[in-house]
Design goal:
- The chain is mainly beta.
- It has one domain.
- It contains 1 helix and 7 strands; from the N terminus they run E-E-H-E-E-E-E-E.
- Strands 2-1-3-4-5-6-7 form a 7-stranded antiparallel β-sheet.
- The radius of gyration is 13 Å and the shape is flat.
- The termini are far apart.
């Protein structure tokens, strides 16, 4: 499984913003700053993770790069994540 790092996933344009090195993502992680991990490829990831301090959002993408499943986790205690929200979307056409 290949991982790629960037500032964010631009949902409207269906592309990453500011593709980063792993080192840059590690710096953001250490600072608790927001960054995004793309899974699979840069152009057509299967999902992405938005990570910030005590929050992780996971968005699964369909063949048209639309989010169809979203999970949002928040830290409920040190090193323990709690699922806050799960959504499933369906698209017509």
């Amino acid at each position: 499984m290949k991982l790629f790092f960037c500032k964010s996933w631009f949902r409207a344009e269906k592309c990453p913003t500011e593709v980063w090195t792993e080192e840059k993502a590690r710096e953001c992680h250490a600072e608790g700053a927001l960054y995004t991990v793309l899974v699979g490829s840069i152009e057509h990831p299967s999902c992405f993770l938005e990570v910030k301090d005590n929050f992780v959002g996971v968005g699964f993408l369909d063949d048209h790069l639309r989010e169809y499943v979203v999970y949002v986790f928040a830290e409920s205690s040190p090193e323990m994540l709690f699922l806050q929200r799960a959504t499933h979307g369906e698209y017509v056409g």
